[in-house]
Specification:
Strand content: 5-15%
Shape: elongated
Number of helices: 9
Oligomer: single chain
Helix content: 25-40%
Structural class: alpha/beta
Largest sheet: 5 strands, parallel
Bound molecules: glutamic acid
Length: 322
């Protein structure tokens, strides 16, 4: 189901630290694409994993965005306040047999995979062997259960229709993509045994709740898209268009991230914000911008927008036109 609603994009940072050069690129690109489509741009704080969140990082990120002139068109949404909505989505899946409780520890999974002779799995992440699937009549065990999405069950297809295990989707930059979620990823977690909501469920529920038509984010998240589309389909939600941006790498060729020591982008003064936006635009591959002393963050935004429309339009694969 493609969305024909007016463009609405979002930037969805996890507040694990302040914006660094890489995350500012995602913020800027999502804003540019929204503005290029005369669309709206929203910010959502993805703070569902408290152990990874840094106190005050959310307000700091919002300040950095504001310093750069990146103002959301609607109030910011905090995922930590949305538990009842995620619970409702999970209940919906449970009631249709699309989510089941799983009592396996990491060790259980590793042992089950070893017993099946599985040596090494994709991205070193174990494809869940399905131990607790209801059809395997796994005995109920003590302890807290995680909830997994059943990737091999779907609402029954219409008569004569077969459901292909491969999910095909289109990325505006990467072109046609496909994944067999059941075979390549397996039944993924919707709610963790410690009670925390999984990113996949929260992102799908909130993209739909906020009416997001277009997701623009880093390429490291592209691999999650098929899982998210499967969930959207299971929950009867629209699928947005997707555009995954090239990753910003550090000097060692690693993705810029807080874990790898990426530093906060300074934006306190207008000249710092101007510099930060200029660097982000150049990391996006937009032609270099030169400034005189009159320039402000707003000049960088309008120049970047002009370049985005000219330079990215030609590059993006889309059946809908840029
Ligand atoms: N919160 C995720 C992150 O900061 C981004 C999620 C998304 O854009 O779908 O990596």
């Amino acid at each position: 189901m493609l969305n024909n609603a007016p463009y609405r994009g979002r930037f969805a940072p996890s507040p694990t630290g302040p914006l660094h050069a890489g995350s500012l690129v995602a913020a800027l690109a999502s804003w540019l694409d929204a503005r290029a489509h005369q669309g709206e741009w929203l910010v959502r704080i993805e703070d569902i994993d408290p152990p990874r969140c840094v106190a005050g990082a959310d307000t700091f990120i919002l300040k950095q965005l504001a310093d750069c002139g990146l103002h959301p068109d609607h109030p910011t949404l905090w995922q930590s306040r949305r538990s009842p909505v995620y619970a409702q989505a999970l209940e919906d899946l449970q009631s249709r047999g699309l989510a089941y409780p799983c009592f396996c520890t990491r060790k259980d999974i590793a042992e089950a995979l070893q017993a099946q002779g599985v040596k090494r799995s994709r991205h070193h992440i174990a494809v869940y062997p399905g131990t607790c699937r209801p059809e395997n009549s796994a005995p109920e065990r003590a302890g807290h259960a995680a909830w997994r999405f059943h990737t091999q069950r779907q609402d029954p297809p219409a008569q004569g229709e077969t459901v292909s295990p491969r999910l095909h989707w289109h990325d505006r930059r990467l072109g046609p993509q496909q994944q067999d979620v059941a075979a390549e990823v397996g039944d993924f977690v919707l709610k963790r045994a410690d009670g925390l909501w999984a990113y996949q469920l929260a992102v799908v529920v909130d993209d739909a709740a906020q009416g997001i038509t277009d997701v623009v984010r880093g390429e490291d998240l592209a691999d999650n898209t098929a899982r998210q589309i499967r969930l959207q389909q299971a929950l009867g939600l629209n699928t947005p268009r997707y555009l995954h941006l090239p990753l910003v790498l550090d000097k060692r060729g690693e993705k810029l991230s807080k874990q790898h020591g990426a530093r906060a982008v300074p934006t306190d003064s207008p000249s710092q914000a101007l510099q930060a936006l200029t660097a982000a635009a150049s990391l996006l591959g937009l032609t270099r911008m030169e400034w005189d002393s009159q320039a402000s963050p707003a000049s960088a935004l309008s120049e970047s927008l002009r370049r985005w429309c000219q330079e990215w339009a030609a590059r993006l694969h889309t059946s809908q036109g840029f």
